[in-house]
Amino acid sequence: MRQSGLPESISRLIGELAKLPGIGEKNATRLAFHIFRSPKIYSENLAQAIIEAKSKVILCNHCYNFASESPCYICSDTERDSFSICVVEEPLDQLAIERSREFKGKYHVLHGVISPMEGVGPEDLRIKELITRLGEESIVEVIVATNLSVEGEATALYLSKLIKPLGIAVSRIAHGIPMGGDIEYIDEITLGKAIRDRRHI
């Protein structure tokens, strides 16, 4: 993508930045000019950080989360509950759950969800590795924390059908009304889920 009036190197930088998710051409142009205006050491550090992340970050061979070594720090933490696994779609989901400080067990990252429309089947995810892991570890409960989407629900159902025959309890995270949310503004799917997942008080 060569922009009129810009040096080819800046146009190329804009083109590469625009490929990032959620970054359009306008934001890519802003970012490119920010980098260009910054001291040279800033751009060198940024480039080095990207190169190091790509070369040094690996997948943990237990949970398949991004890590600097395998097993990762969560899988090797003896203080964590080793009887429960929380299954998530992506590494960012694991980070979100960790920030809640409510889950003290281990994780398993699928790296996606079952989506026939996108050509993604169970064999494209880390499902086989999860089942192998359940056969090797003393897991009592698997918490499925996929998103509340058609694909997320289908993946949760698929996992449940595979795991329950192993004698392991399968639970699904509740989806409901966010703190501070007004019921009148909540979409009907979320509201319906909140009603179905109600609990005694």
Enter the CATH topology name of the largest domain. Dna Topoisomerase Vi A Subunit, Chain: A, domain 2
Mean model confidence by pLDDT: 90
Count the DSSP helices. Answer: 7
Radius of gyration: 21 Å
Task: State the end-to-end CA separation.
Answer: 59 Å
Question: Describe the biggest sheet?
Answer: 4 strands, parallel
CATH architecture of the largest domain: 3-Layer(aba) Sandwich
Instruction: Count every beta strand, where a strand is a DSSP E run of 2 or more residues.
Output: 6
Overview features:
Dna Topoisomerase Vi A Subunit, Chain: A, domain 2; four-stranded parallel β-sheet; alpha/beta; single chain; two-stranded antiparallel ribbon; 201 residues; globular; Helicase, Ruva Protein, domain 3; 2 domains; 7 helices
Describe the 3D structure.
The chain is an alpha/beta fold. The protein has 2 domains: 8-56, Helicase, Ruva Protein, domain 3 (Orthogonal Bundle); 77-196, Dna Topoisomerase Vi A Subunit, Chain: A, domain 2 (3-Layer(aba) Sandwich). The protein has helices at residues 8-17, 25-37, 40-56, 91-100, 127-136, 150-163, 188-196, and strands at 58-59, 66-67, 84-88, 106-109, 141-144, 169-172. The strands form 2 sheets. The protein has a 4-stranded parallel sheet with strand order 4-3-5-6. The chain has a two-stranded antiparallel ribbon with strand order 1-2. The longest helix is centred in the N-terminal third of the chain and has 17 residues, at 40-56. The radius of gyration is 21 Å and the shape is globular. It starts with 7 loop residues before the first helix and ends in a 5-residue tail after the last helix.
